[in-house]
Each structure stands twice: as structure tokens, then as C-alpha cells.
Amino acid sequence: MRVAGVSVNSGDLYFAVVEPSGAGLIAQHVDVGAPRLRPASALPADRRAADLLGRVKQELRALEVKKLGVLDVRMFNSWKYSAAYSRISALTVLQLACHDLGIPYQEVKTDPVGRVVGVAANHLDSLDPARFGFNESPLYWRIGRSGAFAVAATVLDEESA
Fold it and tell me: By CB atoms within 10 Å of each CB, which of 17, 60, 74, 100 scores lowest?
């Protein structure tokens, strides 16, 4: 089963896709066409959301994922409106894409994610990419994709339990 994980950072969506692995890995990575999707800032807000929705759906269709998990965040109280707006907009796009494609969607807090991958919840960026079959750190690893892989592995682990 292919599972997608997404981490949202400053409104950008960082994607990871994993499959089960029997090779001593947490999970085996699957190459993605676009490891990061950004809202098209040159477009007006309504067209920006529609454009991002179309690109997310295109990516999820191509990857043939069966479930999607989003890494929930640890910080809420000190957010500025613009940061919260960017995150909420991105999550809404993901939810609509999953709804339209019939892909189950869930948000997972960092504590259970950290337990599954064996890394402190507030240090997911220190996760070793070799545990997903990479020979070197993939693009955007420390700014979003490590969390995306961690949440994908957590959702996959829940499915196999």
C-alpha cells in the first residue's frame, strides 16, 4: 500500500510517499514528481487556491496513494495571522483534494510520529534518510520532507497493525 505524508511549512506542501519494506527500513521511499508544491503567489487568492488544488490532485493521482497523513504542528499560541492563514489554506486544499479523489485523510500529532520513527517529536528533522532507503539526503529534507516521511511511515504503521 502506498501512503503519502505531507508536511506544511510556510504554506508550502512537502510530499513523501512510502511503501512497506522488509529490508530493515522504516519504509521504502517512492520517488515523487514534485517533492514541494508552493502556492502560485502571482495569482489572485481564489485562483491560487484552485491552481494548488489542481496540482495536488495531479500529484496524488500520479502517485496512486491509498491514504494521506499530514504532520500536525506543535505551535499554536504565538502564530501570526499570515502564518496561520497559509497553513489553514494549505490544509484545506489537501482536504479537498483527498475528498475529490476518495483518499482517506488524517492529521497526526508529532508525538506518535516520533515514537514510530524513533526520534524526538521536536527533532523530526534529524531523522536519517537512509531509514527510508535513500543514499543521501533528498531535496528539502530538513525543511519539510523529513516530517512528511515520518508521518507517512506512521500512517503506514497504523495500517499494518
Answer: 74
Report whether pLDDT(60) > 90.
yes
Is 0.90 topped by the overall pTM? yes
* Whether pLDDT at 161 is above 70: no
- SS3 sequence of the chain: CCEEEEEEECCEEEEEEEECCCCCCCCEEECCCCCEECCCCCCCHHHHHHHHHHHHHHHHHHHCCCEEEEECCCCCCCCCHHHHHHHHHHHHHHHHHHHHHCCCEEEECHHHHHHHHCCCHHHHHHCCHHHHCCCCCCCCHHHHHHHHHHHHHHHHHHHHC
State the architecture of 3-160 in CATH terms. Answer: 2-Layer Sandwich (3.30)
